[in-house]
Specification:
heterodimer, A: 423 residues, alpha/beta, Peroxisomal Thiolase, Chain A, domain 1, ten-stranded mixed beta sheet, two-stranded antiparallel sheet, 12 helices, globular, disordered C terminus, B: 394 residues, eleven-stranded mixed beta sheet, two-stranded parallel ribbon, 14 helices, 13 strands
Chain lengths: 423, 394
């Protein structure tokens, strides 16, 4: 039966992450403030033959604590990344997941590769006649989510979306739906993708990867840099959060989900799809474009993507599209593919915590064909309504609007986020 | 009391392609007919049996050759969507009413053969040997995106990677219909066979070994599934919208649930808690009780593990009054991510024809008395689901 959407607020109460510049939320706040770039030579595999042997690999990530809390059986890189972020998010939210009614807890993630790193390793060995069935435990894309279900005791849906770059924005949108449809009280939502030879080779032969550095929206940009990581958010219904006196970091206000229906690889030059997508997200949030004060852009650094996104911003915001503070965190953490949307959400919360607009490092010269208000350095600011964009391979677009809570202190409770007109 | 049609999900079109052929009629005819041969796949070196799908002639079907070189899973998907749209009489594109049609696509392994090709290129020749075309078609969302391009679908695209796709996809499709801007949703599941996937499924003991007996009758031991492939697409609309446009309602999708058992990797809870949660959730969603179910289409892969947990789950939910249980897997194989959706499509066809295929009828269901069919879903790594398909009572 089609659910009735209710007026429940969708709150974010915990954030955890791992990426090339930070292994937890607090260090992410400082790394972005400092404009740190995570690009470095790839160490996880032989990068010979790639267009760019450098990437934003989470090389400093130590999965040791993930194993210490659990059994010692080796898990896939994706599960390591996800569980590390999950542990942080749960700790920040101060939530006892076992206290959630099992059928009202869900996991919704986004990824493009899932356990492909282990899958490739298994396949290579199998071709040589060595089969290790245990490696297949983590191969399915929903395995990291299942691990979180096992630990939380959640019996609700364990979903993983794979719509390329839009995957984890879609996961946030669906988390929002599950809460508003009263199907769940708590949703563990986010995204993950490991750096792999498979994705690096693919983007390399498609010549989407820059041979140099990633400079989104700069007139001299020439491609993306791949990254890896995971970002996990604890998403709760306001009534549930209120019962446990939880502090809200942000609220997910709305989303847009629109496809170009045009090309697998080339963005629509008219930018109609991404513009419609942003517009819907803003409308669902109960805002007008004038109410948005930060754009967490998709901003991959490829010529066509950034040009399309800038055009869509202009279509939605008019001349103000070139003035609203805008940031592409891919200049620091690379393109984390299925994790990109969740990383943007984490960055928005971190920006509020740090009182700044995130930088777009390496940005030097605006592109006159599509100027946006990026800066190579962090700028002071207290963004409240954030539009986070993702534009995916295959023509899917997903934008999310978040409202950031006023008080970002870790030890004090944030003021309640105002409740909008209820439907 | 008149049903609230705005909250009812109706199925107005179905398209299937698989080992049985093309279309719901072919699926119907294959049940109990012993038509599908379980034999090694002809596309790659193999010893394991499988149920290979027919390749659709998209050039003839769509009057266009642009999709003929796609990966097979994309071809299956596009063929199924084409058939479903045609049956729903839901024209899209130039000259048609402007409709926001979304697509929710589920797959277990994605474009497996293309991914295997990339792996082979990487191992044998290095990164530069990966073909750009292969890479762009290896993403899980490729079949859905290509379908959106082919049919001009500008609504939402959702792609779920799941080991049990049918219930999960339908659960999400139902959620999408709650959005005011969405007029209809195409629920699509597709998977293709490839050597690496089939071999890995045998390694984890899901797949039946080469040379094993077929296990089609209860007297034969459960030995695992025979992998199959193909696609199934359903057109879902709000009941009032379908009535307003004069669409023929094939059936109602009365309830959907997607759950997990929160137990152990690759070892589902043997008490069937995941499936129990799914069936209870589905019935609650449909505002129905266990006594309302006339028949169950079971999703077990014919493994001992699946069979045991399913039996426990049925006992828990239905007690001594478990309705007749039937399975299509012995006839058409287990199409992985598309398997449960084939069952749903068959359930729709049963309600449309008002009878049960003879072989499934042997399970004890009086022909003509079936008004609601519960389709279950059991996946790897703790995924479960259930769908209740009901005769539309208006």
């Amino acid at each position: 039966m089609i659910p009735r959407m209710r007026s429940r607020e969708v709150l974010v109460t915990g954030v955890g992450l791992v990426n090339a510049i930070a292994n937890d939320f607090e260090s992410f706040v400082e790394a972005m403030r400092a404009g740190r770039c995570g690009q470095r030579p790839i160490v996880g595999f032989d990068a010979g033959g790639l267009r760019n042997p450098r990437a934003c690999e989470a090389a400093d990530f130590d999965p040791g604590p993930v194993y210490e809390r659990r059994d010692k059986r080796k898990m896939d890189r994706s599960s390591e990344l996800v569980l590390a972020a999950f542990d942080q998010a749960v700790a920040m939210a101060g939530i006892d997941l076992r206290g959630v009614e099992p059928m009202r807890g869900a996991v919704v993630m986004g990824s493009t590769l899932g356990g492909a790193v282990t899958g490739f390793r298994y396949y290579r060995a199998a071709r040589e006649g060595r089969r290790r069935p245990s490696q297949l435990r983590d191969h399915s894309m929903h395995a990291p989510g299942y691990r979180m279900c096992i630990e939380s005791g959640f019996l609700g849906p364990n979903l993983v979306f794979s719509t390329a770059c839009t995957s984890s924005n879609l996961a946030l949108a669906v988390a929002c739906d599950l809460v508003r449809a009263d199907k769940a009280d708590v949703v563990i939502a986010g995204g993950f993708d490991p750096l792999s030879l498979i994705s690096c080779s693919g983007f390399s032969v498609m010549r989407n990867v820059t041979p140099g550095i990633c400079r989104p929206f700069d007139r001299n940009r020439d491609g993306l840099v791949l990254g890896e990581g995971s970002a996990v958010l604890i998403v709760e219904a306001d009534d549930f959060a209120a019962r446990r006196s939880a502090r809200a970091l942000a609220a997910i206000r709305g989303y847009g989900l629109v496809s170009d229906a045009r090309s697998m690889t080339a963005p629509d030059p008219t930018a109609a799809g991404p513009a419609a997508c942003m517009q819907r997200a803003i409308e669902m949030a109960g805002l007008t474009p004038a109410g948005v004060d930060l754009i967490c852009a998709h901003g991959t650094g490829t010529v066509l993507n950034d040009q399309t996104e800038a055009r869509a911003l202009r279509n939605v915001f008019g001349p103000r599209g070139a003035e609203i503070p805008c940031a592409s965190i891919k200049s620091m953490i690379g393109h984390t593919l299925g994790a990109a949307g969740a990383m943007n959400a984490a960055a928005a919360v971190a920006a509020r915590r740090g009182g700044y607009i995130p930088p777009t490092v390496h940005f030097e010269e605006p592109d006159p064909r599509g100027p946006v208000a990026c800066s190579a350095e962090a700028r002071p600011g207290n963004p409240r309504h954030v539009l986070s964009n993702t534009l995916g391979f295959g023509g899917s677009n997903c934008s999310v609007v978040m409202e950031l809570a006023d008080d970002s202190g870790v030890s004090e409770r944030a003021r309640p986020i105002p409740v909008r007109a209820r439907t | 009391m008149a049903p609230d049609l705005a909250r009812r999900v109706v199925i107005t079109g179905a398209g299937v392609i698989g080992s049985f052929g093309i279309g719901a009629g072919a699926l119907w005819d294959s049940i109990g007919a012993g038509k599908t041969k379980f034999a090694p796949c002809t596309r790659y070196p193999a010893t394991l049996p499988c149920a290979e799908a027919v390749k659709p002639d998209l050039r003839r079907m769509l009057q266009s050759g642009r999709n003929s070189r796609m990966s097979l899973v994309s071809q299956f998907a596009i063929a199924a969507v084409h058939l479903a749209l045609k049956q729903a009489d839901l024209p899209l594109g130039k000259g048609a009413p402007d409709r926001a049609v979304g697509i929710v696509y589920g797959t277990s392994h994605g474009p497996g053969a293309t991914t295997q090709e990339i792996y082979d290129d990487l191992i044998d020749h290095g990164p530069a040997a990966v073909k750009p075309r292969a890479f762009q078609e290896s993403v899980f969302n490729a079949p859905a995106s290509l379908a959106s391009i082919q049919f001009g679908l500008k609504g939402p695209i959702q792609v779920l990677a799941a080991s049990v796709c049918g219930p999960t996809v339908l659960y999400q499709a139902q959620m999408l219909l709650a959005q005011p801007g969405v007029d209809a949703v195409i629920a699509l599941c597709a998977d293709e066979l490839c050597g690496a996937v089939q071999s890995a499924l045998r390694v984890v003991r899901w797949h039946r070994p080469a040379g094993a007996v077929d296990g089609r009758s209860p007297s034969r031991p459960a030995r695992g599934a025979v992998a199959s492939e193909g696609a199934a697409a359903l057109i879902l609309e709000r009941g009032d919208d379908a009535v307003a446009r004069g669409a023929l309602t094939l059936a109602e999708m009365a309830g959907a649930a997607s759950t997990n058992d929160a137990w152990k990797l690759v070892r589902p809870a043997q008490d069937g808690r995941g499936l129990i949660a799914a069936m209870h959730g589905c019935l609650a969603d449909a505002e129905a009780s266990p006594g309302d179910v006339d028949m169950i289409l079971s999703s077990t892969a014919n493994t001992e593990v699946d069979d045991r947990l399913e039996a426990a789950a049925f006992r828990s939910v239905f007690g001594d009054a478990t309705p007749p249980v039937a399975s299509t897997k012995g006839d058409i194989g287990h199409a992985m991510g598309a398997a449960a959706m084939f069952d749903v499509a068959l359930a729709v066809e049963m309600l449309r024809r008002g009878r049960v295929p003879v072989s499934l009828d042997a399970a004890g269901t009086p022909a003509g008395d079936v008004g609601s069919i519960l389709c279950t879903g059991i996946g790897l790594n703790g995924m479960f689901g259930a769908i209740l398909i009901r005769r539309a009572a208006w």
